[in-house]
Each structure stands twice: as C-alpha cells, then as structure tokens.
Design a protein that fits this description.
Residues 39-339 form the Aminotransferase class V domain. The protein is an alpha/beta fold. 42% of the residues lie in helices and 14% in strands. The chain folds into 2 domains: 27-271, Aspartate Aminotransferase, domain 2, CATH 3.40.640; 274-394, Aspartate Aminotransferase, domain 1.
C-alpha cells in the first residue's frame, strides 16, 4: 500500500468573482457555515428548517406551502422540478433560445417525457405569439421557460403572458429562475408560475449545496398522484414531502451546513428588502454597462431584454476571449467567463450578482478589462469608461 499523500494546508486564491456564478459570499454566510453542527432531525434544526422555508417564500414572492431548499446544486433543483412534474408520456414544451432550455429538454426526456420546442434565436426572448402557436400545434402538459438565461444575458419579459397561454391549455409552467432569484424582479404567485427552481450561488451569494424550489398546490397534486414513481429516489418530492412537510420524517441527511448558509443568505435578502435588492442590482449593473459601452463594447442583449445580473458582452473582432479571461485572472485575481454553446468565443459573461454587485467590483471590471483589451491592441478609452461607470454610480 502506498504512503499517505503529502497534501498541504488548503489555501485557495482570493478571487473577485464576477463570472456567471458562483458570486462572492458575504462574510456572515461564511461565519454561519462555521457554527456547530447539529443533527438533521434535531429540534433546533427543525425550527431552522421552518425559518428557511419562510425566507424562501419571501424571496420567491410566493405563499406556496411547498417551498424548500433541495439538497444539491441548482441542477438538482432543476431535476427535482422536471423529473417529478413530467411523467412518462407527458409532452413538455421547451425553449431553444439558450443553453439551459436545452438542459430542460434533456431532463424531460430522461423523465420519460416527449419534448417539443418553441424557437427563438440565442440572444432573444420567447415571443408570446410563438408560444401560443406551439401550444396550438401540440398537446402540451408542461411548459418550461428560462426567466434569466445565463448563456445569453437575456431576461424574459412578459412572463404573465406566457403563463396565461399555458394555463389556457391546461399546462403546468416550470420556470428556471437560477440567475434571477434575489437579483431581478421575480413574482412567482403574481405571475402564475406553478413551479420555480433556482440556485443559491448566484444572486443569493451562497455556496452551492441547498437550492431553492417552490411548487404550488396544483403542481404538487400532480406529483403526489403520479401513476409511476419518479425515476430518482433521492429527488422524489413525494418522499421529500415527508421530511420538509409537517411530519419531518427521515429521508436523507440534509446538508446541514449548507442549510445554515442559505438561511443566512436569505436573512440578508430580507434585511435589505427584496425590492431594494432588485433596484441595487439594476443600479450597479447599469454602471457596469455604461462603462463597457463607453469603452466601445457592445452588449449581446438589447436594452429591453438586458439582464442586470448577467451581462453578456460581445468580444471585439480579432480579440482572443480566452486570453483576456486568463489575463484578468492572473493579473487581477478577477474572474469572468466565456460564452456557452452557440455563443462560445463570441461573448464574455460578466456577473453582477448578490454580494459581488457593488461599486468597487464593477469599477475593477471596467478598468481591468480595458487594460486587457489595450494589451491586445484594441483602441479603447479606459478613462472614459471609468468616468462613465463612476458617473452612473453617483446617481
């Protein structure tokens, strides 16, 4: 047998996280994770579970009884939503206008569903007329859409129009709110969304591990009355109902420290006030956008679809996007990301999320990106960009 590995003390770099997630974590959340562990059925933890559910309802803007943090990353919450609501033989309508609509399709197919698509170009939202036409052409049981598409920087407008079309055809609506919850306006009940899932590591500024999910009564009734069990035992909501519902019966060992973390992250949301938080993201991201545009850069999404929490910026002709990303990481300890799927190599994705959405960080992004572009021979006026950013932040 080999000798014990000689592994040194953990010492990760101190980055400024301005990519598509994770975002910087608030010190209070980190402190919450260092508090003593208790059992996942301890009376104190059960009380904490109730608090987390109430805070999630506040943040989702819902009264849904069935609102929980799923044990896992945002993709686990996504799979819990789709894998429980979509039954074998169901038809799910999914969008084609971004990377995560494609992931919806994959999960629906694995759940035994038949997938049909409503088309829109990458970089544009869904048109309600196209959604209505897709419903007229297909017998749809479940409609999924991405509220804030992380791969394109597009915010879906007219959500009530989409949900109304679906409900007129007796279909349930599943919304991907991973990049919107806690960062841009999201009103689950008012917009008649049946199911919404999210991730904690973006605008909530919480380490991944416990991911928000909410279902209304109609959606949960479908889950509890399935003819066949959900294909995932771990993510079977009819079983998780026993743990997160009134019974508090054992199902699995919850990620206790991650639940501590999301509780503190959600407390920060409530203390700031959810509508003030939405306004902060728009104000700070607006300053970032102003600086980038003053530098001569172009946003991928037009103004009416711009997503403040995820800014997709077109890479100028002749610029190597990867070299810029690497330079920012090496020279500034600053993380941004490249494009996904159809936009790989064409955009940078710059997050402005949660604790990371602050004047210091957006000012750093503008000046550092200007430096990186100048080193590649791009004619940029960094001074004008910094001034534009500062001017917006002063308003």
């Amino acid at each position: 047998m080999s000798d014990a590995p000689d592994v040194g003390e953990l010492s990760p770099p101190n980055r400024t996280l301005m990519g598509p997630g994770p975002s910087d974590v608030h010190p209070r959340v980190l402190r919450a994770m260092s508090t003593p562990l208790v059992g996942h059925l301890d009376p104190s933890f059960v009380e904490l579970m109730d608090e987390v559910q109430e805070l999630l309802r506040y943040t989702f803007r819902t009264d849904n009884e069935w609102t929980i943090p799923v044990s896992g990353t945002g993709s686990a919450a996504m799979e819990a939503a789709i894998g429980n609501v979509v039954e074998p033989g169901d038809t799910m309508l999914v969008p084609t206008n971004g990377y995560f609509g494609g992931r919806m399709a994959e999960m629906a197919e694995r759940a035994g569903g038949d997938v049909v698509e409503v088309d829109a170009p990458w970089g544009e939202p869904l048109d309600p007329d196209d959604v209505a036409a897709a419903f007229d052409a297909h017998d749809v049981d479940v409609f999924g859409f991405v509220h804030a598409e992380t791969s394109t920087g597009v915010l879906q407008p007219e959500v009530p129009a989409l949900t109304s079309i679906a409900h007129d055809h007796d279909a349930l609506v599943i919304a991907d709110t991973v990049t919107s919850i806690g960062g841009v306006e999201l009103r689950v009940d008012e917009w008649d969304v049946d199911v919404a899932y999210a991730g904690p590591q973006k605008c909530l500024s919480c380490p991944p591990g416990a991911s928000p999910l909410t279902l209304n009564d109609e959606a949960m009734e479908k889950v509890l009355n399935r003819e066949a069990d959900a294909r995932s035992w771990y993510l079977d909501l009819s079983l998780l109902e026993g743990y997160w519902g009134e019974e508090r019966a054992y199902h699995h060992t919850a990620p206790i420290t991650n639940v501590y973390a999301i509780r503190e992250a959600l407390r920060l949301v409530a203390e700031e006030d959810i509508e003030e938080r939405w306004a902060r993201h728009r104000r700070v991201a607006g300053a970032l956008k102003a600086g980038l545009e003053a530098m001569g850069l172009e946003m991928n999404a037009p103004e009416e679809y711009w997503l403040p929490s995820l800014n997709a910026v077109r890479v100028p002709d002749g610029v190597d996007d990867g070299e810029v990303i690497d330079y920012l990481l090496d020279a500034y300890d600053l993380e941004i990301a490249s494009g996904l799927g159809d936009l790989e190599g064409d955009i940078w994705r710059i997050g402005c999320m949660g604790y990371s959405a602050n004047p210091k960080n957006v000012s750093l992004v503008v000046s550092a990106l200007g430096d990186a572009l100048a080193r590649q021979g791009v004619d940029v006026d960094v001074g004008a960009a910094v001034e534009a950013t500062a001017r917006e932040l002063e308003q």
